Amino acid sequence: MIQCPRGTRDFLPDEMERRRFYESVLRDTARTFGFRETETPIFEEAELFILRSGPNILNELYAFRDKGDRELALRPEMTAPAVRMFVNGMSNDPKPIKIFYFGQCFRYERPQSGRYREFFQFGAEIIGSAAPETDAEVIATAAAMIKALGLKEYKLRIGHIGVLRQKLSDAKVPAERFAEVLQKLDKKLYDEARSILASVGVEDADIGSIIDITETVGGPEVLSKIEGDAGAYLKEVLDILTAMGVEGIEIDLGVVRGLDYYTGMVFEAEAPVLGAEKQICGGGSYTLSELFGGEKVFTTGFAIGFDRILLAMEREGIPFVHDGIDAYVLYVSEEARMKAFEIVGDLRSKNVSADVDIMGRKMAKALKYAASARARYAVIIGPKELEEGSVTLRNMSTGEQSLVRICDLASAIKG
User: Fold this and answer.
1) How many angstroms separate the CA atoms of 77 and 302, rounded?
2) pLDDT tens readout for residues 239-250
């Protein structure tokens, strides 16, 4: 038996219904905040991701050469394609530009709980401004999405990458080593970060000071410990969030987002129920457009790991009620067979979701199937009903039955 490839999944009807429902929750929330949906190709030129993340990203890509000998790759994330799309077709549009997207991404890495080689990402970007208002709007959008999904236990933490960058600069760390150090600090690999910093001549005291920064965590009171303009900037972001009713934000300068293009505010959301791999959302302010041939434009955005957040909801025991269909039509005599198809066609034309027995089952088995399809009603047609121009309408929850005229059937089911 051929199985689906490692790191991918089949989604059966019940799971697909659940996923589509929660996708729609995210889309509706994004539209409420004034974002508009976009879509980019599932594969791009591999160079797009190399420019964004460096040549080492090739080890994680599903990369290939097409018949024209072009090097392409399945997208490993959706930020770079979104910015490439902006440069190609939206750079002259009035700013700010607010977009969102949802789709599949691919990374060749070891599958584990909630992490797959084919995964799904929901993201949003505000393009055109580097301001506290923009950053607050993006964080508020992400917070509203997580809340709308129904997740109860989660934390939102914000920081400022500029603080660490300044510390590294003051310690005379070569600029080309910043990304490497930040990636280690992002993953809390402090021993490895110490080793790198020591190898470029940073004094022990300065190394300690750099690592101490990543452990600056708390409420608004810790902002006074942040040197330079970053503290004042984050205070303004927090003030705007408070005005919009977003609460429970934690200041955490250990939120590093170890990618070189982040320039200012960074934030993450985590769900403790997921254990060590608890991040469900991450973002911040950055510039990328100049790498892809456009003018330098500031952007703030975020991405939600859709698979991760669904797993967190599942572990919290958040129930999902499947819809089922409104009616299942069955006939108990051959002469009623064509009438059954006529009735199901009429119900569908009146926006009643309906199915019909196409297996010629006996009554008991047909009702059992109707229950498995989560039908609210069974519509039963026999010789007696056929004579009277009526059907027997059975409530599948209570078992109650009543005789209903065919012309009143749609309204009886809707009512």
Assistant:
1) 11
2) 999 999 998 899
